[in-house]
Amino acid sequence: MKRRQFVGGLAAAATLSACAQDAADCGGDGAISRQTFEWSCVTSWPPKFPGLGMAPENLAARVEAASAGRLKIKIYGGGELVPPFEVFDAVSRGTVEMGHGASYYHKGKVDAAQFFTAIPFGMTNLELNAWLYYGGGMALWHELYAPFNLVPFPTGNTGVQMGGWFNKEINSVNDLKGLKMRIPGLGGEVLRRAGGTPVTLPGSEIFTALQTGAIDATEWVGPYNDASFGLHKAARYYYYPGWQEPGPGLETIINRDAWNSLPADLQEIVSTTCQAITTDMAAEYTNGNAVSLQQLKKDPNIELRRFPPEVLGLLRTIAQDVVDELMASDPAAAKIGEAYFEYLDIVSENSRIAERAYLNTRES
Amino acid sequence: MKRRQFVGGLAAAATLSACAQDAADCGGDGAISRQTFEWSCVTSWPPKFPGLGMAPENLAARVEAASAGRLKIKIYGGGELVPPFEVFDAVSRGTVEMGHGASYYHKGKVDAAQFFTAIPFGMTNLELNAWLYYGGGMALWHELYAPFNLVPFPTGNTGVQMGGWFNKEINSVNDLKGLKMRIPGLGGEVLRRAGGTPVTLPGSEIFTALQTGAIDATEWVGPYNDASFGLHKAARYYYYPGWQEPGPGLETIINRDAWNSLPADLQEIVSTTCQAITTDMAAEYTNGNAVSLQQLKKDPNIELRRFPPEVLGLLRTIAQDVVDELMASDPAAAKIGEAYFEYLDIVSENSRIAERAYLNTRES
Fold it and tell me: What is the structure's pLDDT at A31?
């Protein structure tokens, strides 16, 4: 894999000498670099989209404040500078210094990256963070992205998603047959094998497709984001739980040359702020979902429904096959997948007697 | 409420003039203060205790790195500088600049603070953070601590705790009668009304009390911390779920004069690092609990048990009475408690179809 020249990094390096001279003249404590950086961050989201799009905005504002303006990051919505799904390439080749998106968008380029976002019937938000920060996950992620000249930072998590909006009732596995549903990634492949027709559509086209009957169903995120797209005005049945993405983690990716050009204090500010955004985004989603759900429940045109157990059971069986094939297709996916499922075995035993047992008691 | 003199703040203010002069001489960008601070942080934890005690250590190390050494924080274990439960007073009167502990330790001084840690059958980690950061909780917390010259920052969460270690089986509500159990706070009061005898013991004395039969049972935290105390060597039955503390949030408190003496960039570094520690501690606990639980399950002398539903039902009914009385006793507790339960009503509806429905599906 070739190492690409990083334009921003070279420009920044030139600035460095001038600033270093400045500091030496002052005879100050010398520990604080006055070097300034202006970065661009491309994202996969509509600008300032609730949750997903606010995370990079919040990240940039906080980094600028914490660095006293030494690191300014300009955020671009998907398509403003590069298309939403070309964030990885743009940051990898150094067109921009930073990106915010989801690692499973890199399917086809680096298939194994999907384990760091979400796996059907896999880890929740809390479990994924435990694996990444304390269970060895981050080391695998760094290793996977190193050939692309990228440094990854977990930055946000939407929490458990919803099953989606349907204009057909799902009463048995037969109702999946012929179902045209907007559902990307591994979840879409699972639906296909269950007899459905998965469709990939960007967020902006979902509402119309659902309203016109071009699709029978769609998953998106959860009440907070779904309501902001107006999906409840285009479908009757709102199904839960989301089995396809049980706690997707988002990522910040930084071009390695840009990262290496930062002094140690700014590196610490960036990595700590990314971790803070993970708490912040989960709080924004939990609150937003709760408030939006309350409103949706008042709408007589909407029925909140649970998928029948036999449907979830079938999807789960197929999901295991799909993930097994992913792991068999690629040595990196095999290595990371084995680590992921070994950890899931252990961590899910704890979730069973902690979160699950508690919520069942409280909600009984 | 009188405003106490803050010694550290005055010393810091003197340093400020010298540094400001320095910066002016240099003709630099002027935005970066070179002023340095050396703070002391007292805690309620044994030094470097897994999870709880590591949070302030990690906080201090990161703040020092992110500030390029301009803000150094020395961490003291409980009892090293002030006793574990005198953190609030020491920071309030400015003996030290910072403290890390739990707001429910301030019972008796500021009863309403208990809502910001944990309430029996109340909010989980994700729900509490949603309330604090996006549901109005932080504004109430700031208001509550203002008369004490303190600024609060949520900093860490242990997640759902365990019900505890028992040397008597709990098969019915009758088994609670006469039960001598180490369980502090609101949970202890609930047990008392259910016929038990709650005992308050510092962590360091729990093992011996349980082993000698001075107590029949104890709650502590969860597998990670419980195993490090060796509680599994002193009791046979490990009960779940923890009903008394379903996701206790920890706090950093900062003396307001010390806080005001920080330049804006260091304030941002501190507040963002506190929020990052919330992700980090949850990850440490989720991982530590999972690994420790796996080990405990291999021990033939331990039985993992679920509390009978009728026991949980009784405890829940009593808990509501106990919290109602707390709210009736104090206007601040009434105001904060009303906001807490109004939010719990909304947020728990979402948890029911998100985390709960998903975990039930995955673990079925």
Answer: 56
Stated as kind and residue range, the H or E segment containing B113 is: none
Statement: the pTM of the whole predicted model exceeds 0.80 = yes
What CA–CA distance (Å, rounded) separates B216 from B267?
47
Mean pLDDT of A186-202: 94
Enumerate long-range contacts of B309-314, CB under 8 Å, 24 or more apart: B309/A361, B309/A364, B310/B172, B310/B173, B311/B170, B311/B172, B311/B173, B311/B175, B311/B176, B312/A361, B312/B243, B314/B173, B314/B176, B314/B194
The ipTM is: 0.92
Of B306, B350, B363, the CB nearest to A289: B350
B30 touches chain A (CB under 8 A): no
pLDDT tens-digit profile of B284-329?
A: 999 999 999 999 999 999 999 999 999 999 999 999 999 999 999 9
Element (H, E) at A349: helix A331-351
Name the helix (H) or strand (E) containing B100.
Answer: strand B98-101
pLDDT tens digits, one per residue of B88-112? 999 999 999 999 999 999 988 999 9
Q: Given CB atoms, is A280 within the 8 Å cutoff of chain B? A: yes
Of B68, B273, B283, the CB nearest to A272: B273
Chain B residue closest in CA terms to A244: B358
> How confident is the model at residue B22, as a pLDDT?
39
Higher pLDDT among residues B364 and A217, named by residue: A217
For chain B, the average pLDDT equals: 92
Q: Which of residues 41-60 of B touch A (CB under 8 A)?
A: none
Q: Compare all CA atoms of chain B with the CA of A267 and give the residue at the minimum distance.
A: B66
**Which of B353, B356, B364 to mutate to probe the A interface, most A CBs <10 Å?**
B353
Q: Give the whole-angstrom CA distance, residue A129 versus residue B137.
A: 24
pLDDT at site B202 = 75
Q: How far is CA B335 from CA A80, B128, B190, B327, in A?
A: 46, 17, 22, 8
A·B CB contacts under 8 A: 270
Q: What are the DSSP calls for B201-261, one per residue?
A: --HHHHHHHHHHTS-SEE--S-HHHHHHTTGGGT-SEEEE---S-SSPEEEEEEEHHHHHH
Ordered domains of chain B (ranges, CATH): 7-157+247-286 (3.40.190.170), 164-244+303-324 (3.40.190.10)
Q: Binning pLDDT at 50, 70 and 90, where does residue B25 land?
A: very low
Per-window interface: A 73-102 vs B, CB < 8 A:
none
Q: Do A351 and B364 touch (CB under 8 A)?
A: no
**Interface subset of A 189-208, CB within 8 angstroms of B:** none
